[in-house]
Amino acid sequence: MSPLFNLGYDFLALLGIACAYFAVCWLIARKLDNWSIVDVAWSYGFALVGLQMLYLHTTVMPLGGQGLLMALATIGWSLRLGTHLAVRVLGHLEQEDGRYVRMRAEAGDGMPGRMAYFYFVQAVALALLCLPLLSSSPQGAAGPVGLIHWCGLGVVIAAMLIEGWADAQLAAFKKDPANQGKVCERGLWSWSRHPNYFGEWLVWVGFLLMSYNSTYRGIPGLACVAIMYYLLNHVTGVPLTEQQLLRSKGSAYADTQRRVSAFWPWPPRR
Length: 270
Hints:
- It is built from eleven helices and no strands.
- The protein has about 270 residues and is an all-alpha fold.
- The protein has one domain (about 5-260).
């Protein structure tokens, strides 16, 4: 069988598993009456796929150095992001994220059906964004780790540091009662309105480099860089967050929009 056929088969198998996984998450979310858990489920989903790859490596077929490194990097990133969201979401189940509160207001009694579709989209996105991981070890025979893969790992680590730093700065800002109703423009947040989203996108740039091999030439990874950029900037990331912030912060956030770059880090306008 051709490598492309194998990749397609692996993708469809993963998509089926992801749909079952998110169906269970949908049932749990409806029982808890808090749809925000999808963010936690999505983030941890990559670690589950990476762990499955490691299991196959030890029981069925060798991953090769590149595939093993890619699996470990995916698990590390997924656990960091998932744990960060789990602390925020699961620690306050009585409070639903503002994005889903707005969806409830729009959907009314149709919210469960709307979220069933939304959770299905998350399953598709998870399967698609796992393509760099799936393609990093074609037929279980990826080559040794090369310079491009180490550079990719460096980008992933830098991206995770950006995400962690941005999250810590925002948490410290919100903790100060004097900042109630204000917009965070400190540190990374003075250069980008969404430095955490920029860091998350940068992770996939690193995964693109880490997944490169002579079989796929990094094409699945490049597609995922484009998909993640589109999702963050036009679907679930920046647009929904900006709408929520405009409702909660009003003219203060509108002023921030005028001066601070939305996604790409850039010196603020005065």
